[in-house]
Q: What sequence folds into this?
Protein backbone atom coordinates (compact mmCIF):
# COMPACT_ATOMS: atom_id res chain seq x y z
CA UNK A 1 0.00 0.00 0.00
CA UNK A 2 1.29 3.45 -0.91
CA UNK A 3 1.87 5.38 2.25
CA UNK A 4 2.51 9.02 1.48
CA UNK A 5 1.26 11.14 -1.39
CA UNK A 6 2.39 14.71 -2.10
CA UNK A 7 -0.11 16.83 -4.03
CA UNK A 8 1.45 19.90 -5.66
CA UNK A 9 -1.07 22.74 -5.85
CA UNK A 10 -4.09 23.52 -3.68
CA UNK A 11 -6.37 24.41 -6.59
CA UNK A 12 -9.76 22.82 -7.09
CA UNK A 13 -8.30 19.56 -8.42
CA UNK A 14 -5.56 19.32 -5.77
CA UNK A 15 -7.89 19.89 -2.82
CA UNK A 16 -10.43 17.40 -4.18
CA UNK A 17 -7.91 14.61 -4.74
CA UNK A 18 -6.39 15.23 -1.29
CA UNK A 19 -9.78 14.94 0.42
CA UNK A 20 -10.74 11.77 -1.44
CA UNK A 21 -7.34 10.11 -0.86
CA UNK A 22 -7.52 10.87 2.86
CA UNK A 23 -10.91 9.17 2.97
CA UNK A 24 -9.32 6.14 1.23
CA UNK A 25 -6.64 5.90 3.95
CA UNK A 26 -3.64 7.60 2.33
CA UNK A 27 -1.35 10.08 4.10
CA UNK A 28 -1.56 13.25 2.02
CA UNK A 29 0.18 16.61 2.13
CA UNK A 30 -0.70 19.42 -0.28
CA UNK A 31 2.09 21.87 -1.14
CA UNK A 32 0.81 25.26 -2.30
CA UNK A 33 2.98 28.12 -3.53
CA UNK A 34 0.64 30.90 -2.30
CA UNK A 35 1.14 32.11 1.29
CA UNK A 36 -2.62 31.65 1.95
CA UNK A 37 -5.89 31.39 0.05
CA UNK A 38 -7.03 34.71 -1.40
CA UNK A 39 -10.60 35.44 -2.56
CA UNK A 40 -9.84 36.09 -6.24
CA UNK A 41 -12.56 37.88 -8.16
CA UNK A 42 -14.30 35.15 -10.04
CA UNK A 43 -17.35 32.94 -9.99
CA UNK A 44 -17.73 29.39 -11.22
CA UNK A 45 -20.53 27.09 -12.39
CA UNK A 46 -20.70 23.72 -10.64
CA UNK A 47 -22.75 21.25 -12.62
CA UNK A 48 -24.25 18.06 -11.18
CA UNK A 49 -21.20 15.96 -12.14
CA UNK A 50 -19.11 18.17 -9.82
CA UNK A 51 -21.69 18.19 -7.05
CA UNK A 52 -21.76 14.38 -7.07
CA UNK A 53 -18.05 14.40 -6.16
CA UNK A 54 -18.61 17.12 -3.56
CA UNK A 55 -21.25 14.85 -2.03
CA UNK A 56 -18.56 12.21 -1.32
CA UNK A 57 -16.46 14.88 0.39
CA UNK A 58 -19.44 15.75 2.59
CA UNK A 59 -19.66 19.35 1.35
CA UNK A 60 -22.54 19.27 -1.14
CA UNK A 61 -24.92 20.84 1.35
CA UNK A 62 -22.50 23.59 2.39
CA UNK A 63 -22.01 24.54 -1.27
CA UNK A 64 -25.72 24.30 -1.95
CA UNK A 65 -26.40 26.65 0.96
CA UNK A 66 -24.03 29.35 -0.25
CA UNK A 67 -24.39 29.06 -4.04
CA UNK A 68 -27.07 30.34 -6.34
CA UNK A 69 -29.44 27.73 -7.79
CA UNK A 70 -30.42 29.21 -11.16
CA UNK A 71 -33.79 28.08 -12.48
CA UNK A 72 -32.34 27.91 -16.00
CA UNK A 73 -29.27 28.54 -18.12
CA UNK A 74 -30.35 30.97 -20.82
CA UNK A 75 -28.53 31.57 -24.11
CA UNK A 76 -29.29 34.88 -25.81
CA UNK A 77 -28.55 36.31 -29.23
CA UNK A 78 -26.13 39.24 -28.81
CA UNK A 79 -28.12 41.97 -30.61
CA UNK A 80 -31.79 41.05 -30.26
CA UNK A 81 -31.57 39.35 -26.87
CA UNK A 82 -33.70 36.53 -28.35
CA UNK A 83 -33.43 33.28 -26.40
CA UNK A 84 -31.71 30.61 -28.51
CA UNK A 85 -31.87 27.95 -25.79
CA UNK A 86 -33.17 27.73 -22.26
CA UNK A 87 -31.90 24.76 -20.26
CA UNK A 88 -34.12 24.17 -17.21
CA UNK A 89 -32.19 23.73 -13.95
CA UNK A 90 -35.22 23.39 -11.69
CA UNK A 91 -36.09 20.65 -9.20
CA UNK A 92 -37.07 18.22 -11.99
CA UNK A 93 -33.69 18.81 -13.68
CA UNK A 94 -31.90 18.28 -10.38
CA UNK A 95 -33.72 14.96 -9.91
CA UNK A 96 -32.79 13.91 -13.45
CA UNK A 97 -29.08 14.89 -13.21
CA UNK A 98 -28.77 13.53 -9.68
CA UNK A 99 -27.54 16.76 -8.07
CA UNK A 100 -28.07 20.51 -8.34
CA UNK A 101 -26.37 22.97 -10.70
CA UNK A 102 -25.07 26.00 -8.80
CA UNK A 103 -23.05 29.18 -9.28
CA UNK A 104 -20.59 30.06 -6.51
CA UNK A 105 -17.79 32.46 -5.73
CA UNK A 106 -14.48 30.65 -6.24
CA UNK A 107 -13.33 31.89 -2.85
CA UNK A 108 -16.30 30.21 -1.17
CA UNK A 109 -15.66 26.98 -3.09
CA UNK A 110 -12.00 26.96 -2.05
CA UNK A 111 -12.84 27.63 1.56
CA UNK A 112 -15.46 24.86 1.71
CA UNK A 113 -13.18 22.39 -0.12
CA UNK A 114 -10.39 23.04 2.36
CA UNK A 115 -12.80 22.32 5.21
CA UNK A 116 -13.13 18.76 3.84
CA UNK A 117 -9.42 18.09 4.58
CA UNK A 118 -7.77 17.14 7.84
CA UNK A 119 -6.43 20.26 9.59
CA UNK A 120 -2.86 21.01 8.56
CA UNK A 121 -3.06 19.13 5.24
CA UNK A 122 -2.09 22.18 3.16
CA UNK A 123 1.44 23.48 3.51
CA UNK A 124 1.41 27.09 2.24
CA UNK A 125 4.28 29.14 0.86
CA UNK A 126 5.78 26.01 -0.69
CA UNK A 127 6.59 26.67 -4.34
CA UNK A 128 7.92 23.49 -5.90
CA UNK A 129 11.26 23.98 -7.65
CA UNK A 130 12.54 20.51 -8.40
CA UNK A 131 11.68 16.83 -8.28
CA UNK A 132 14.18 13.99 -7.85
CA UNK A 133 13.01 10.43 -8.27
CA UNK A 134 14.84 7.51 -6.68
CA UNK A 135 13.94 3.85 -6.31
CA UNK A 136 12.78 4.59 -2.78
CA UNK A 137 10.53 7.54 -3.53
CA UNK A 138 10.39 11.13 -4.70
CA UNK A 139 12.35 14.08 -3.32
CA UNK A 140 10.82 17.55 -3.54
CA UNK A 141 12.69 20.80 -3.14
CA UNK A 142 10.98 24.14 -2.72
CA UNK A 143 11.90 27.74 -3.50
CA UNK A 144 12.00 28.54 0.24
CA UNK A 145 14.89 26.08 0.64
CA UNK A 146 12.72 23.40 2.25
CA UNK A 147 12.50 19.78 1.16
CA UNK A 148 10.11 16.85 1.50
CA UNK A 149 9.76 13.25 0.37
CA UNK A 150 6.79 11.14 -0.69
CA UNK A 151 6.04 7.77 -2.25
CA UNK A 152 4.03 9.37 -5.06
CA UNK A 153 3.53 12.89 -6.42
CA UNK A 154 0.36 14.28 -7.97
CA UNK A 155 0.95 17.38 -10.09
CA UNK A 156 -2.17 19.51 -9.63
CA UNK A 157 -0.17 22.68 -10.17
CA UNK A 158 -2.15 24.20 -13.02
CA UNK A 159 -1.34 25.64 -16.43
CA UNK A 160 2.39 26.20 -15.83
CA UNK A 161 2.93 22.96 -13.96
CA UNK A 162 6.44 22.28 -12.67
CA UNK A 163 5.56 18.59 -12.34
CA UNK A 164 4.58 18.50 -16.01
CA UNK A 165 7.88 20.15 -16.99
CA UNK A 166 9.75 17.58 -14.89
CA UNK A 167 7.97 14.72 -16.67
CA UNK A 168 7.74 15.94 -20.24
CA UNK A 169 9.95 19.03 -20.60
CA UNK A 170 9.15 22.73 -20.27
CA UNK A 171 6.97 24.22 -22.99
CA UNK A 172 4.91 27.40 -22.74
CA UNK A 173 1.12 27.10 -23.05
CA UNK A 174 -0.65 28.22 -26.24
CA UNK A 175 -2.23 31.71 -26.12
CA UNK A 176 -5.62 31.43 -27.83
CA UNK A 177 -5.72 35.05 -29.05
CA UNK A 178 -8.64 35.71 -26.68
CA UNK A 179 -8.83 37.37 -23.31
CA UNK A 180 -11.50 37.09 -20.63
CA UNK A 181 -12.83 40.11 -18.76
CA UNK A 182 -13.93 39.32 -15.23
CA UNK A 183 -15.99 41.69 -13.07
CA UNK A 184 -17.81 41.23 -9.77
CA UNK A 185 -20.00 43.97 -8.35
CA UNK A 186 -22.95 44.51 -5.99
CA UNK A 187 -26.35 43.91 -7.59
CA UNK A 188 -27.42 47.33 -6.32
CA UNK A 189 -25.25 48.90 -9.04
CA UNK A 190 -27.69 47.56 -11.66
CA UNK A 191 -30.19 50.18 -10.41
CA UNK A 192 -33.10 47.80 -10.79
CA UNK A 193 -32.18 46.55 -14.28
CA UNK A 194 -33.40 42.92 -14.31
CA UNK A 195 -30.98 40.14 -15.25
CA UNK A 196 -31.35 36.41 -15.81
CA UNK A 197 -30.02 34.34 -12.91
CA UNK A 198 -27.58 32.68 -15.33
CA UNK A 199 -27.17 33.66 -18.97
CA UNK A 200 -24.71 33.75 -21.85
CA UNK A 201 -24.95 36.38 -24.59
CA UNK A 202 -23.54 35.05 -27.86
CA UNK A 203 -21.96 37.38 -30.41
CA UNK A 204 -19.75 36.57 -33.37
CA UNK A 205 -16.29 35.67 -32.03
CA UNK A 206 -17.12 37.08 -28.58
CA UNK A 207 -19.51 36.35 -25.76
CA UNK A 208 -20.24 37.27 -22.17
CA UNK A 209 -21.77 35.36 -19.27
CA UNK A 210 -23.85 37.17 -16.67
CA UNK A 211 -24.88 35.50 -13.44
CA UNK A 212 -25.60 35.89 -9.77
CA UNK A 213 -22.93 34.22 -7.71
CA UNK A 214 -24.56 33.74 -4.33
CA UNK A 215 -27.89 32.55 -3.07
CA UNK A 216 -28.62 36.03 -1.69
CA UNK A 217 -28.20 37.45 -5.23
CA UNK A 218 -26.27 40.39 -3.83
CA UNK A 219 -23.33 40.00 -6.24
CA UNK A 220 -23.24 39.84 -10.03
CA UNK A 221 -20.43 38.17 -12.00
CA UNK A 222 -19.52 38.93 -15.61
CA UNK A 223 -17.01 36.88 -17.58
CA UNK A 224 -16.34 37.45 -21.27
CA UNK A 225 -14.27 36.18 -24.13
CA UNK A 226 -13.03 38.80 -26.58
CA UNK A 227 -10.40 38.52 -29.34
CA UNK A 228 -7.16 40.27 -28.36
CA UNK A 229 -3.97 39.18 -30.09
CA UNK A 230 -1.82 41.57 -28.04
CA UNK A 231 -1.47 39.81 -24.67
CA UNK A 232 2.00 40.82 -23.46
CA UNK A 233 2.58 37.74 -21.28
CA UNK A 234 3.56 37.81 -17.65
CA UNK A 235 1.13 37.24 -14.78
CA UNK A 236 -2.21 35.46 -14.70
CA UNK A 237 -4.20 38.68 -15.12
CA UNK A 238 -3.93 42.47 -15.34
CA UNK A 239 -6.26 45.29 -14.32
CA UNK A 240 -8.65 45.96 -17.22
CA UNK A 241 -9.74 49.23 -18.78
CA UNK A 242 -13.46 49.98 -18.34
CA UNK A 243 -13.78 51.90 -21.64
CA UNK A 244 -12.16 49.03 -23.51
CA UNK A 245 -14.49 46.55 -21.76
CA UNK A 246 -17.60 48.57 -22.69
CA UNK A 247 -16.40 49.12 -26.25
CA UNK A 248 -15.98 45.38 -26.70
CA UNK A 249 -19.78 45.07 -26.36
CA UNK A 250 -20.83 48.03 -28.50
CA UNK A 251 -23.79 47.02 -30.64
CA UNK A 252 -24.95 44.33 -28.20
CA UNK A 253 -28.55 44.59 -26.94
CA UNK A 254 -29.04 47.73 -24.79
CA UNK A 255 -29.95 45.59 -21.74
CA UNK A 256 -26.56 43.84 -21.95
CA UNK A 257 -24.73 47.13 -22.49
CA UNK A 258 -26.34 48.53 -19.34
CA UNK A 259 -25.16 45.49 -17.35
CA UNK A 260 -21.59 45.90 -18.66
CA UNK A 261 -21.69 49.64 -17.91
CA UNK A 262 -22.62 48.90 -14.27
CA UNK A 263 -19.26 47.20 -13.56
CA UNK A 264 -17.09 49.61 -11.54
CA UNK A 265 -13.87 47.72 -12.31
CA UNK A 266 -12.71 44.81 -14.43
CA UNK A 267 -9.74 42.48 -14.74
CA UNK A 268 -8.35 40.94 -17.92
CA UNK A 269 -7.20 37.32 -18.15
CA UNK A 270 -5.44 35.59 -21.05
CA UNK A 271 -7.05 32.37 -22.30
CA UNK A 272 -4.55 29.56 -22.83
CA UNK A 273 -4.70 25.89 -23.65
CA UNK A 274 -2.26 23.13 -24.62
CA UNK A 275 -2.36 20.28 -27.12
CA UNK A 276 -3.16 16.84 -25.61
CA UNK A 277 -0.30 14.99 -23.88
CA UNK A 278 0.57 11.48 -25.08
CA UNK A 279 0.82 10.32 -21.43
CA UNK A 280 -0.33 11.68 -18.08
CA UNK A 281 2.22 9.97 -15.80
CA UNK A 282 5.77 8.67 -15.60
CA UNK A 283 7.39 6.72 -12.77
CA UNK A 284 6.02 7.94 -9.46
CA UNK A 285 4.47 11.18 -10.74
CA UNK A 286 1.06 11.77 -12.28
CA UNK A 287 -0.80 14.88 -13.47
CA UNK A 288 -4.37 16.05 -13.18
CA UNK A 289 -6.52 19.04 -14.16
CA UNK A 290 -4.96 22.03 -15.91
CA UNK A 291 -1.45 20.66 -15.27
CA UNK A 292 -2.40 17.85 -17.62
CA UNK A 293 -5.08 19.16 -20.00
CA UNK A 294 -5.86 22.89 -19.80
CA UNK A 295 -9.01 23.47 -21.84
CA UNK A 296 -10.63 26.51 -23.38
CA UNK A 297 -13.09 27.76 -20.73
CA UNK A 298 -16.09 27.85 -23.10
CA UNK A 299 -17.93 24.90 -21.63
CA UNK A 300 -17.30 26.05 -18.04
CA UNK A 301 -15.89 22.60 -17.41
CA UNK A 302 -12.14 22.96 -16.79
CA UNK A 303 -12.53 22.73 -13.04
CA UNK A 304 -15.17 20.04 -13.47
CA UNK A 305 -12.65 17.92 -15.40
CA UNK A 306 -9.99 18.51 -12.71
CA UNK A 307 -12.47 17.40 -10.05
CA UNK A 308 -13.55 14.31 -12.00
CA UNK A 309 -9.84 13.49 -12.59
CA UNK A 310 -9.37 13.69 -8.82
CA UNK A 311 -12.16 11.20 -8.16
CA UNK A 312 -10.98 8.68 -10.77
CA UNK A 313 -7.33 8.98 -9.70
CA UNK A 314 -8.18 8.48 -6.01
CA UNK A 315 -10.28 5.40 -6.86
CA UNK A 316 -7.55 3.96 -9.11
CA UNK A 317 -4.91 4.36 -6.39
CA UNK A 318 -7.22 2.76 -3.85
CA UNK A 319 -8.06 -0.18 -6.14
CA UNK A 320 -4.60 -1.00 -7.56
CA UNK A 321 -1.55 -1.57 -5.35
CA UNK A 322 0.86 -0.96 -8.22
CA UNK A 323 0.90 2.82 -8.89
CA UNK A 324 1.93 2.27 -12.53
CA UNK A 325 -1.19 0.16 -13.07
CA UNK A 326 -3.34 2.70 -11.20
CA UNK A 327 -2.02 5.54 -13.37
CA UNK A 328 -2.75 3.64 -16.59
CA UNK A 329 -6.32 2.89 -15.48
CA UNK A 330 -6.81 6.53 -14.47
CA UNK A 331 -5.58 7.79 -17.82
CA UNK A 332 -7.57 5.27 -19.87
CA UNK A 333 -10.73 6.17 -17.97
CA UNK A 334 -10.28 9.92 -18.23
CA UNK A 335 -8.90 10.51 -21.73
CA UNK A 336 -12.05 9.93 -23.84
CA UNK A 337 -14.18 12.19 -21.68
CA UNK A 338 -11.61 14.98 -21.42
CA UNK A 339 -11.10 14.88 -25.20
CA UNK A 340 -14.86 15.15 -25.76
CA UNK A 341 -14.97 18.22 -23.52
CA UNK A 342 -11.86 19.65 -25.20
CA UNK A 343 -13.48 19.43 -28.65
CA UNK A 344 -16.75 21.09 -27.59
CA UNK A 345 -14.93 23.76 -25.54
CA UNK A 346 -12.79 24.67 -28.53
CA UNK A 347 -15.83 24.92 -30.82
CA UNK A 348 -17.59 27.16 -28.24
CA UNK A 349 -21.04 25.84 -29.05
CA UNK A 350 -22.09 24.40 -25.68
CA UNK A 351 -25.71 25.26 -24.78
CA UNK A 352 -25.99 27.86 -27.57
CA UNK A 353 -28.76 25.84 -29.18
CA UNK A 354 -30.85 22.95 -27.81
CA UNK A 355 -28.77 19.99 -26.59
CA UNK A 356 -29.21 17.28 -23.97
CA UNK A 357 -26.35 17.70 -21.44
CA UNK A 358 -27.13 14.45 -19.59
CA UNK A 359 -23.90 12.76 -20.78
CA UNK A 360 -21.93 15.51 -19.00
CA UNK A 361 -24.06 16.29 -15.95
CA UNK A 362 -25.20 12.76 -15.01
CA UNK A 363 -21.66 11.32 -14.94
CA UNK A 364 -20.72 10.18 -11.44
CA UNK A 365 -16.92 9.92 -11.25
CA UNK A 366 -17.21 8.13 -7.90
CA UNK A 367 -19.22 5.27 -9.44
CA UNK A 368 -18.38 5.22 -13.18
CA UNK A 369 -16.59 2.04 -14.35
CA UNK A 370 -12.79 2.23 -14.34
CA UNK A 371 -11.28 1.24 -17.69
CA UNK A 372 -8.50 -1.27 -17.09
C1 LIG B 1 -11.96 32.97 -17.59
C2 LIG B 1 -12.09 31.56 -17.08
C3 LIG B 1 -13.34 31.11 -16.60
C4 LIG B 1 -13.49 29.79 -16.17
N1 LIG B 1 -14.72 29.37 -15.70
C5 LIG B 1 -14.89 28.07 -15.34
C6 LIG B 1 -16.18 27.57 -14.88
O1 LIG B 1 -17.17 28.31 -14.77
N2 LIG B 1 -16.27 26.24 -14.56
C7 LIG B 1 -15.19 25.39 -14.65
O2 LIG B 1 -15.33 24.18 -14.34
N3 LIG B 1 -13.97 25.84 -15.06
C8 LIG B 1 -13.79 27.14 -15.41
N4 LIG B 1 -12.57 27.58 -15.80
C9 LIG B 1 -11.41 26.64 -15.82
C10 LIG B 1 -10.89 26.41 -14.41
O3 LIG B 1 -10.62 27.64 -13.77
C11 LIG B 1 -9.62 25.56 -14.40
O4 LIG B 1 -9.75 24.51 -15.32
C12 LIG B 1 -9.40 25.00 -13.00
O5 LIG B 1 -9.18 26.03 -12.07
C13 LIG B 1 -8.23 24.03 -12.99
O6 LIG B 1 -8.04 23.54 -11.68
P1 LIG B 1 -6.65 22.92 -11.24
O7 LIG B 1 -6.82 22.49 -9.83
O8 LIG B 1 -6.19 21.93 -12.25
O9 LIG B 1 -5.59 24.12 -11.36
P2 LIG B 1 -5.57 25.54 -10.66
O10 LIG B 1 -6.93 25.94 -10.21
O11 LIG B 1 -4.85 26.45 -11.59
O12 LIG B 1 -4.69 25.32 -9.36
C14 LIG B 1 -3.30 25.14 -9.42
C15 LIG B 1 -2.72 25.44 -8.03
O13 LIG B 1 -1.34 25.08 -8.04
C16 LIG B 1 -0.58 26.11 -7.43
N5 LIG B 1 0.79 26.04 -7.97
C17 LIG B 1 1.19 26.33 -9.23
N6 LIG B 1 2.51 26.12 -9.37
C18 LIG B 1 2.96 25.66 -8.17
C19 LIG B 1 4.24 25.27 -7.69
N7 LIG B 1 5.34 25.29 -8.47
N8 LIG B 1 4.35 24.84 -6.40
C20 LIG B 1 3.24 24.81 -5.59
N9 LIG B 1 2.01 25.19 -6.00
C21 LIG B 1 1.87 25.60 -7.28
C22 LIG B 1 -1.34 27.39 -7.79
O14 LIG B 1 -1.03 28.46 -6.92
C23 LIG B 1 -2.78 26.92 -7.66
O15 LIG B 1 -3.29 27.05 -6.35
C24 LIG B 1 -12.38 28.90 -16.22
C25 LIG B 1 -11.13 29.36 -16.66
C26 LIG B 1 -10.98 30.68 -17.10
C27 LIG B 1 -9.63 31.15 -17.61
A:
Amino acid sequence: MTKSIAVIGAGLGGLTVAGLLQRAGFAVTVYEQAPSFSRIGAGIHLSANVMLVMRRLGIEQALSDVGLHPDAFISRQWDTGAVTFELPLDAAAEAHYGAPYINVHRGDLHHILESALRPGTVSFGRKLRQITETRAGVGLSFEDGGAATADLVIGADGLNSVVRSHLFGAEPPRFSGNIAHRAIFPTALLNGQPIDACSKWWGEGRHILVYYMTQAREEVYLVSSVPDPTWPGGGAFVPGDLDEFRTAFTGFHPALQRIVAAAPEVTKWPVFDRPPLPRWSEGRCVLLGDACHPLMPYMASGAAMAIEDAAILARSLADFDDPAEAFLVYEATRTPRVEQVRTISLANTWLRTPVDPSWLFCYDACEAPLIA
Summary: The pocket of flavin-adenine dinucleotide is lined by residues 8-14, 31-34, 44-45, 126-128, 156-158, 162, 180, 223, 269, 271, 289-291, 297, 300-304, 306 (CB under 6 Å). The longest helix spans residues 323-347. The CA atoms of residues 75 and 244 lie 24 Å apart.
